[in-house]
Backbone:
């Protein structure tokens, strides 16, 4: 009797693994966008935490204040990566039914 339940549970785990692998591949193609400085810096990141593009409008470039531009880029990159991680967590949570398995994603 116990073996039947264990087999059923193992099949469910295997299906969840397959679904998660499929979702991870799908998330690589999804993107999130973040801006800083009122939109003068825009960063796009993928669902696998890679920066896809950085756009800087000319009005953001002030040779007298390079640190401000660096701060804007850094803020936009960090926010884009945060959004990408939140997107992955949200989508994985849908798949796992809210199970919090450390190291899973």
Residues:
């Amino acid at each position: 009797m116990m073996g039947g339940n264990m087999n059923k549970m193992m099949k469910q785990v295997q299906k969840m693994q397959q679904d998660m692998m499929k979702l991870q591949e799908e998330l690589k193609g999804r993107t999130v966008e973040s801006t800083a400085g009122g939109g003068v810096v825009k960063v796009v990141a993928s669902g696998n935490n890679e920066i896809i593009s950085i756009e800087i409008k000319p009005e953001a470039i002030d040779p007298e204040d390079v640190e401000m531009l660096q701060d804007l880029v850094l803020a936009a990159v960090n926010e884009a990566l945060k959004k990408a991680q939140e997107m992955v967590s949200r989508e994985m949570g849908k798949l796992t039914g809210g199970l919090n398995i450390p190291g899973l994603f």
